[in-house]
Each structure stands twice: as structure tokens, then as C-alpha cells.
């Protein structure tokens, strides 16, 4: 009889431990969001991985391929800025998107890793003349749906 109670207790503890670990893993999983096809730069493709960190902030890991040099847009711009739209705090500039091409590749790759204390509902990229702009004024080149 003691052996059965011990086995049930161990199984119960393992079940509770696995359940708690599963909940923690599900909360820390990154949500992958895809940018919509752009009428401004149709070849551009991009994704954002969004996840919560241990401090309740939001980690954004943004990657875009085939995004044309902003100087080639009409009208010409100097750089790309990434914005988040939040439910309660409006639109926030989260950083400049840097574009580079590899030595043996013509694929233009852009990326930005950043952290925000604001929960994003939508992410979009505009072409701007100044990285420190507080409001999007340039052309929107990529955006996500609301999530």
C-alpha cells in the first residue's frame, strides 16, 4: 500500500511540475508576425518575432530582405524607421532599420533587435529623412496587420 501512495505522490508532483513548465514555456514563446506585401517596395519580405521578457517588456527581432535603398524611393529618403502602434500609448519610434548587403550576395538584408515597454498591436516601417523623428511623416513601406 505504501508503494502505491508513493508512486501516486511522485506522479502528482511530476504532473504539476510539467504543467508549470509548459505554462512558462508557452508564455516565453515568440510570436512570429509577417509583414504584408508592400506596394512601395513589392520585393520586400519581412518578419518580426515578438516575445515577452522576464521584466514584462516586449522583445522585437525584426528581419527584412530585399528592401531597396531609401534613396531610390520616390520621393527619395535617407533611412527607414520602425514604428509600433500601441493600444494605449499611440505610435512609438523604436529605431532605425539598417540595410546591408553581403559580399557575395545582392540580397539586401535589414534587421533590428530592440525592447519596448509598450505592447505593440501593429508594426510598420516608414522611409524618413531623420531617425529621431517623433511621428511618421514619410511613406509607409511595410506594415503588419493588427495582432
Tell me what the structure shows.
The chain is α+β, with helices and mostly antiparallel strands and 147 residues long. Helix content is 18%, strand content 43%. It is built from one helix and eight strands; from the N terminus they run αββββββββ. The chain has one helix spanning 2-28; strands spanning 31-34, 45-52, 58-65, 79-86, 90-101, 108-116, 120-128, 139-143. Strands 1-2-3-6-5-4-7-8 form an eight-stranded antiparallel beta sheet, with no helix packed on it. It is elongated. The chain starts with a helix and ends with a strand. The mean pLDDT is 86.
Topology:
Layout: H1 2-28, E1 31-34, E2 45-52, E3 58-65, E4 79-86, E5 90-101, E6 108-116, E7 120-128, E8 139-143
Antiparallel strand pairs: 1-2, 2-3, 3-6, 4-5, 4-7, 5-6, 7-8
Distance between the termini: 54 Å
Identify low-pLDDT runs. none
On the 0 to 100 scale, the average pLDDT is 86
Please provide the ordered H/E string of secondary-structure elements. HEEEEEEEE
Largest sheet: 8 strands, antiparallel
Instruction: Give the total of beta strands.
Output: 8
